[in-house]
Amino acid sequence: MRHTDEAPAVAEALGLLREKGERVTAARRAVLQVLDDAREHLCAEDIAERVDVAEPGVHRATVYRSLQSLTELGIVAHTHVPGSATIYHLRHSEASRHNHAHLQCTTCERFFDVPTDWLAPLGDRLRQDLGFELDSQHAALLGTCAECHKAASEARNEG
């Protein structure tokens, strides 16, 4: 039964679980809700802490297992972050507010979200030339942000 306060992306994700013959548990529902509510990037520890507030009876290990199974089912995506914990978010969907890829500055380590369609030309080129399917949510693209690039240029000019 659908909870009336479920966000559209959570309802869609729960529907996918049911379609796949999977159980909708309090832990899975809470994980999905935490991910949908998040305005920042969350690692498994962050998610477990927020689930503990929302559903105090859900054990931390259950949250980790839920994240793993939701990822394996393709409902949750994870992004590997060099030198840091993996972050999680809902997979791309019509209802999800979180359709983005990640950039990370290697100098200041800040994250930047970019629309996934910005990477579509790259994905098309990789598919056409190499037969390679890009998963733009799986890893952060590394580079230097504008602020750090400017600071480095100014430092070179002063030296």
TrEMBL record:
Q: Which cofactor does it need?
A: Zn(2+)
Q: Which domain of life is it from?
A: Bacteria
Say yes or no: keyword DNA-binding present: yes
Per UniProt, which keywords does this protein have? DNA-binding, Metal-binding, Repressor, Transcription, Transcription regulation, Zinc
- Note the InterPro entries from the entry: FUR (IPR002481), Fur_C (IPR043135), WH-like_DNA-bd_sf (IPR036388), WH_DNA-bd_sf (IPR036390)
User: Quick one: which residues bind Zn(2+)?
Assistant: 105, 108, 145, 148
Protein name from the UniProt record: Transcriptional repressor
What species does this protein belong to?
Flexivirga endophytica
